[in-house]
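Below is a concrete protein record.
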Amino acid sequence: MESEQIKTSVRGGGNNADNSEKEKKKMALMRVFVERQDPDAKEVDNLTLRRFLCARDLDIEKASAMFLKYLKWKKTAVPNGFISEKEIQNELTQTKVFMQGRDKAGRRIGVVFGAKHFYATREMDEFKRLVVYVLDKLCASMPGGQEKFVGIVDLQGWGYSNCDIRGYIAALDIMQNYYPERLGKAYLVHVPYLFMKAWKIIYPFIDNNTRKKIVFVENKNLKATLMEDIDESQIPQTYGGELSLVPIEKSTM
């Protein structure tokens, strides 16, 4: 399955045999290099290496540096190999992250409510653990042949008490640097004018690959926009679909 996913990668030419062969050769060279630097790299599959390679546009040196930084981060940020719900109890009680349904490509759908996050009560280390917990659960629920997820960021009711620039940048840093090529698309819905002031501060911290995946959705076109990629049966009821929201800690794979 892993080799098939690599062969059918749409990055850099999809089914083009030359591009696929070039990618495989670069990935092999990258593996030799990173395993020399950190023996733990031997435990990482080729699909993971490929995501880091693609995130750096097939530049072996840059991709290797990014990957080795990830291995170092994981040893300290996730020493047990996973984040337990006991480690993020305060964050989970806010019931702000949900996971249910899949889009037409089979990508898992996560929903985040920005107005349920409060800067004043946020503890940064626990918040970072929540981000890792959410990303790990989204990734673990992906079917074979799919490596990305879809996010809906709902900002209805968002105000100054919810504004957490440091938290947003920390979440971006984790997703972009340690979970590269995992985000398929992010819909920003019910965006208040006030949020755009925060967006101007956050935007420079978003890399070009991620920027291309972010879609601001007008309220009047909300359901129609979601239905371009998601069947009505998989759209949350709050957006005119048929699916109930499920808190991420209660969501099954």
Summary: The two ends are 19 Å apart (CA to CA). The first strand starts at residue 97 and ends at 102.
